[in-house]
């Protein structure tokens, strides 16, 4: 039972992990990327359309990345170049993504709500033989979509890039003191632009995982707040790669519990609330711990 729940948790956490790791770059550059949700959604939609048209999962991934980066360009232009409010710009991108996907679905395919077709090709679970010999851990990490394993590799790569490369130093310098970064010759806007594009690429992979990994269809608003959950994971993880991954997994665990409870005689609306209640509780606990820590160090919140 526990193995099955943890197996599902890893699967459900993967899109959150990918989006959160992308958002981690913008977070380090002091760019509040509220548009993670919209980038995920348009990536999921473009991936399904490309898979439907070509039957090739690799072309679908490329199409998802391209579409997501177009939305990242919108965010960059209005949020960074034109100095717009990041929250308003991000929400506008999210609303545009939701509206555009619904409009195209209805006008081009005459569908509402769900787009499913036998021509859509998704990813297939990967079975690793030697994991069968490892008790408890093996069944949890085996038989997943390739994107689950890719997300683990990406987490390692993100940690290395942010902490052990010149680019990572530049990103953190821009985030910590933009004026000082300019003074030493760092092109601040170029760094910020690049972090948004990186987040768009990872959000596209998260969207593909949702629409072609867990399912082989597109459902309107199928991201269901995962972009905002990814932001919560970054906040709870204090902007660290490991912390972000751990909290993304915890939120995936809450989603897994929700799926399990759907089989019981419990009102569906209450069950669907569980992941979001869990997030509110976790955020409250993390906020309280930080406040206590600040008071212990003599920092008074005026």
Note down, in words, how this protein is organized.
With 302 residues, the chain is mainly alpha-helical. The protein has one domain. Helix content is 74%, strand content 2%. It is built from 12 helices and 2 strands. It has a two-stranded antiparallel ribbon with strand order 1-2. Helix 2 crosses helix 9 and helix 10 runs parallel beside helix 12. The protein starts with a helix and ends in a 6-residue tail after the last helix.
SSE map:
Blueprint: H1 2-28, H2 36-54, H3 57-81, H4 86-109, E1 114-116, H5 137-141, H6 146-164, H7 166-176, H8 178-183, H9 188-214, E2 217-219, H10 226-236, H11 241-261, H12 268-296
Helix pairs in contact: 1-6, 1-7, 1-9, 1-10, 1-11, 2-3, 2-4, 2-9, 2-10, 3-4, 3-9, 6-7, 7-9, 10-11, 10-12, 11-12
What characteristics describe this protein?
mainly alpha, 74% helix, single chain, two-stranded antiparallel sheet, 302 residues
How would you briefly describe this protein structure?
The chain has helices at 2-28, 36-54, 57-81, 86-109, 137-141, 146-164, 166-176, 178-183, 188-214, 226-236, 241-261, 268-296; strands at residues 114-116, 217-219.
Number of domains: 1
**What is the makeup of the main sheet?**
2 strands, antiparallel
Look at the structure and give the mean pLDDT: 89
So what's the overall shape? Answer: globular
